[in-house]
Structure to design on (91 residues):
């Protein structure tokens, strides 16, 4: 099981009021929504997909961010064995 925790940064567009959630440590992966909760939900799906691809391609997944300074963090868990099995099963 691969587990990582990354610090989330939020930004609100002053014109549209849409919220962007970003993971600086994970290649600045970002997604948006009408609320912070929606942006975070969308970001989780996107980040999980990115981590799965990184594992399938044998790329290094960035280590977790340190959480002692506080803030908002997104925790991701991936069954590495499943990802690797799916990779081997492809023709």
């Amino acid at each position: 099981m691969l587990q990582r925790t990354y610090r989330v940064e939020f930004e609100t567009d002053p014109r549209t009021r849409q919220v962007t959630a970003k993971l600086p440590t994970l290649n600045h992966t970002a997604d948006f929504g009408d609320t912070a909760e929606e942006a975070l939900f969308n970001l989780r799906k996107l980040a999980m997909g990115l981590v799965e691809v990184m594992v399938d391609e044998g790329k290094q997944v960035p280590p977790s961010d340190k959480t002692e300074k506080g803030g908002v963090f997104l925790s991701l868990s991936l069954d590495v064995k499943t990802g690797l099995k799916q990779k081997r099963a492809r023709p």
About this structure: The longest helix spans residues 36-56.
